[in-house]
Structure formats: structure tokens, C-alpha cells
Specification:
Layout: E1 14-15, H1 29-37, E2 58-68, E3 72-79, E4 90-91, E5 94-96, H2 104-116, E6 123-128, E7 132-133, E8 138-147, E9 160-167, H3 168-171, E10 178-184, E11 187-193, E12 196-199, E13 205-208, H4 212-226
Length: 227
């Protein structure tokens, strides 16, 4: 179902500035590795979107890549405008599970290599988040990995328009989490956005509108790290 509006133009209904950010001493590779080894009791805040397509659910996986710079960053992609599923949206690298994939980790790593040229030799997988079911019918497993910063990328120009990095600290601060409400497909829907102003792959400063499933999975990561 095509959107007949621009999501970035929708008014902001509320902002979660009342929630505390994840403490800085939890936003490092060592702490996050330990958290996956001994996870807290917690539940994802957002797990299933209202469906807006009639088709069988498809299994998918994405890589939530934490780049080990002076502070951790999250590597994200902007999809090209002509794709059938989620055109133009900000996403994690990833996609459908293929029959030849051993598991969702294999899917996430394979798709990351195919989409942006990120080789698995640069990625240390440290855990998985609970599945997230999109309104478009994908049951997505986020696979969390630490990424060595000496990688080079080669974008698949058919699927990926741009790549960029956002400090994890920015995304784990709920004052940057904005709620929107809209009637879509005859149903009142609510979604999160986390707009980020920063350089793209060409170094040019621009605004990236992180929203929908990607923002929801990041919100769940916030709940996991802050639990």
C-alpha cells in the first residue's frame, strides 16, 4: 500500500523527553557483550505492527551494526525509492531469509555483504533481539554485531541510496524519540521517529528520517540496555 503523504511532514504528537537516556557507562562494547551473555528480565516495547498487506508472513533478519569508533555508532542505510518494500526508508542492512541460509545470523551477514559490501570478517555477532513483525508482513530478527571500523563499503546501487552512522548515545536518548499518529488504511496508527542530521556516504550533511520499524527496533534496544 503506497503512502499518500510524507511521513516527515506529519506533526509530532509527543516526545519522550521524560524518559532517562541509557547511562554512558552502558554504551560501550564490553558492557553490551556482557548484557547479551547475562540478559536482564525485560520485554520489547513494540513487537508487532498492524498489518496493511494480505500475504503470508516472511522471515527476515537485519544486522544492527555497532561500529567501534571512539564512541559506538549505528550504521544505517537509506533504501532506494523504487523498491517494492519500504522504498526510500532508513533501514538496517538485511532482508528475507533465503532457503540456503543456515540461520538468521547467516541471513543478516549475507544481506549486509550484498547490500553494502560489509564483510563478515569485520563483524563480531554478540546476540539477537526479539523478533519484530512489520505491517508489510516480515517477521524480522535483529542480529546485533560489533563492527571493526577499518571496513570499506560497496553499495548495491539498486537497493541502497546511501549509508550513514549515528552515535548510539543519540539513539539511546528518548528526548530524540518522537511519536506520530496518522490514519492509514482506515486504521489509526502510531509510529516513532528519530531524525538525525549528519553526513551521508559522500560526506554531505543532510537529514535522515529514521522511523517505523527501524525506529521501533532501536527503541527496543533502548529498553534492553536500560533494563
Amino acid at each position: 500500500m503506497a503512502l499518500n503523504f510524507k511521513v516527515e511532514d506529519l506533526p509530532v504528537a509527543s516526545v519522550d523527553a521524560h524518559l532517562p537516556p541509557v547511562a554512558s557507562d552502558r554504551l560501550n562494547a564490553g558492557h553490551i557483550v556482557k548484557r547479551f551473555r547475562t540478559p536482564p528480565q525485560w520485554l520489547p516495547e513494540i513487537a508487532v505492527e498492524r498489518r496493511f498487506v494480505e500475504r503470508a508472513a516472511a522471515q527476515a533478519a537485519v544486522l544492527l551494526p555497532l561500529v567501534q569508533r571512539d564512541e559506538l555508532t549505528v550504521l544505517l542505510t537509506q533504501r532506494t525509492d523504487h523498491l517494492h518494500d519500504h522504498p526510500g526508508q532508513v533501514s538496517f542492512p538485511g532482508g528475507r531469509v533465503d532457503p540456503g541460509d543456515r540461520d538468521v545470523v547467516d541471513t543478516a551477514l549475507r544481506e549486509s555483504l550484498e547490500e553494502i559490501g560489509l564483510h563478515s570478517r569485520h563483524v563480531q555477532v554478540i546476540g539477537q533481539m526479539p523478533t519484530y513483525t512489520t505491517g508489510s508482513g516480515f517477521v524480522v530478527t535483529p542480529v546485533v554485531g560489533l563492527v571493526e571500523p577499518d571496513f570499506t563499503l560497496a553499495l548495491d546501487a539498486f537497493e541502497v541510496a546511501d549509508v550513514f552512522e549515528v552515535p548510539l548515545s543519540f539513539l539511546m536518548t528518548p528526548a530524540h524519540h518522537r511519536w506520530h499518529r496518522v490514519e492509514f488504511g482506515g486504521v489509526q496508527r502510531e509510529f516513532l521517529s528519530m531524525p538525525w542530521d549528519g553526513p551521508g556516504n559522500d560526506g554531505r550533511q543532510q537529514r535522515f528520517f529514521i522511523w517505523g520499524a527501524t525506529a521501533a527496533m532501536l527503541r527496543n534496544f533502548y529498553r534492553f540496555l536500560s533494563a
